[in-house]
Amino acid sequence: MPLSRVRKEIDDALAAFVDRQRPGLLAIGAELTGLLDALDALLAGGKRLRPAFCYWGWRAAGGDGAQPGLLDAAASLELLQASALIHDDVMDSSDTRRGQPSAHRRFEALAARGGWSGAAAFGEGAAIVLGDLCLAWSGEMFETSGLADDRLARGRRVYDLMRTEVMCGQYLDLMVGARGRASVAEALRVVEFKSAKYTIERPLHLGAALAGGEDDVRDALTGYGMPVGIAFQLRDDVLGVFGDPAETGKPAGDDLREGKRTVLVALTLERATPAQAATVGRLLGDPALDVSGVDALRTIITETGGLAACEALIDRYAGEAAAVLVDAPIAADAQAALSELAVAAIARNA
Amino acid sequence: MPLSRVRKEIDDALAAFVDRQRPGLLAIGAELTGLLDALDALLAGGKRLRPAFCYWGWRAAGGDGAQPGLLDAAASLELLQASALIHDDVMDSSDTRRGQPSAHRRFEALAARGGWSGAAAFGEGAAIVLGDLCLAWSGEMFETSGLADDRLARGRRVYDLMRTEVMCGQYLDLMVGARGRASVAEALRVVEFKSAKYTIERPLHLGAALAGGEDDVRDALTGYGMPVGIAFQLRDDVLGVFGDPAETGKPAGDDLREGKRTVLVALTLERATPAQAATVGRLLGDPALDVSGVDALRTIITETGGLAACEALIDRYAGEAAAVLVDAPIAADAQAALSELAVAAIARNA
């Protein structure tokens, strides 16, 4: 199945799941259309990376590409991701997501239109609830995919581990952000748990576990997935500073305004003069950072060699993954698809 | 099994589950002890009502009281409840829970002790993450309870419905709070989904479904559970205004400061003079409400007859439940336990 076809089937599975929930919600109260609208808006975007990796983990382990229910189980990862995005945006007070208002801003606007008091508090609260609902629904969608019990039992162990890992990674990320400093090693540990395992390695393992894959497949998927996952996040770090808002769906320099303690920032600070480090300390995380402030930080990140070091790391990890893939004990079509997915995940215009 | 023994086994199952997770978290990072400490503190309190109702729903439907895994599946509801409490406290900006600092305040203090910037933001973010983790773990604990697949498949349908209902109820509650007004009927709808179904009816249904109970048992559990659940919440509303902080674990009048649009408040406003209604409008939801403000609201709630109307509703619902229980097609010991649990749930010193 070509990538575009997998993507289409994942979209269809997601839409069908939400449509099955819709009448139940509206029976509880017509006002719940507000929750559904916010979810629909979020799910209209997104690259469906995690379900795609799950599908190709399944195929890599010899699973039948036409297995009923597999893409429902895979698509459930997109609801888990929706939950993570909605809650992340609350934690970071982000205004935009995928080029649209973030969920809490959308709910805030709903309250403001209604003339209700405490619109901001309502926005945050409703977004927390919607994220909870997406988290609950991701589990429900996985469990009700229709896959056989033995498959689900194997997959559940990966799913459980993955959820715990991503939440622990998020907690560590919050700590690093609050402390306002992170070494390259500390920033990489957050990337490992919050991004690389969650976005790529575990979705691959999930698919392989559902298919009943052996340890050698699993190990190869780790050997490929971890470096791709780290490179994916490093690319995201670079785009968060230098990316085109039309492509990232976020305002220019948003990561700088949020003060994210990324690997890119850690690499920059390792190379910065005391004066450059002081400027970073002053500007990074300033919510009112303007274009000239963003430019000043971009200049330091470039001139210190932080950017070049980050790009070199991306290239190194991408090369590592490609080398593993060549020798991996997996079907040729899965190999080709994973190669293509790696390129898409790490691309400069991602 | 006496109620105290059920309670003890639920506590043990919860502690064993968290202990199984502990090494995995600490392997990711020693700092994750902060998450575990906050969870331990929360789980040290609580009446374990939902697991108890699940157990007695199982027994009511003829389930074996010594079934291995049943109390693990039941205890998972306490993790779901932990998630709901942690997130509710973030949404309501509540400082205390079960007589201890709420999770977000605990995390905020951790950040302040470390001298980190943005302690309040860290506190909220970390509490959102911990609530997410508890939600994920509740599903994991249920699914890995060891009960047979056919039992879990039946139970899962109730579990899924229950989670969706309580989250929708929470959304409606936030709307009612932001609008700053709710009729008795609107407040009762929130109570129905956020409290009565979630705390009592669905846990009973869950136990009965796991046991393979028939429709007549299920219907009787609804007939008993819904009125007990509504009465439970109305009692909680009364305690939120008039309760002894030593028993509620919350400061006196905390619900008034948070501006909760409870059935008790709606019953009061139905009966209030324009002057009384204006005073309620001015004081209810004032975060700085002092003792004299709390007293003024208590006086209005009492003098309008709002309190008496609420107590009358509690008595009516309690009587309704008791009448259903007498004729319910369930085992005598389950009948006795449910009668005792209803009294405990509705007691004035709950």
UniProtKB/TrEMBL annotation, chains A, B:
Annotated EC: 2.5.1.90
Biological process according to GO: isoprenoid biosynthetic process
InterPro entries: Isoprenoid_synthase_dom_sf, Polyprenyl_synt, Polyprenyl_synt_CS
A molecular-function term among this protein's GO annotations: metal ion binding
Cofactor or coenzyme needed: Mg(2+)
Keywords carried by this UniProt record: Magnesium, Metal-binding, Transferase
Matches recorded under PANTHER family: GERANYLGERANYL PYROPHOSPHATE SYNTHASE (PTHR12001), SHORT CHAIN ISOPRENYL DIPHOSPHATE SYNTHASE (PTHR12001:SF85)
Family: Belongs to the FPP/GGPP synthase family.
Protein name: Octaprenyl-diphosphate synthase
High-level lineage: Bacteria, Bacillati, Actinomycetota, Actinomycetes, Streptosporangiales
